[in-house]
Amino acid sequence: MDTIKQEHFKELLIQEKQRIQQELDELGSKDPNRPDAEYPESGSNSDEDNAAEITEYADMISVEARLESELKDVNKALESMDKGTYGICKYCGKEIDEKRLEARPASSSCIPCKKTLTQEM
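Below the sequence we write its predicted structure tokens.
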């Protein structure tokens, strides 16, 4: 991958990292530098309100976990740029198609390997 394309993908990754961090800041995060997701309190003690609060909290925890995972992938992709391995499939060692990287810049596997991996699980 040439330097211009790599810089393009680095910019995409940095933008994605900023977006994820902003969303985590709004939710709270497991990051020790940010507060945890807060349990929503409606002020009412009815069973319906309690159920709604629990559902909302479970949803927030799920979203938070997904964002933390995405952030981890983005950070790994940025590290792979520093190591000179960005855009190389971690399973087969072949180049990842640029269309895949455009769609998901943090991808660490090519489409054939990803398909094989997900079919096996």
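Helices lie at 3-27, 47-83, 98-103, 111-120.
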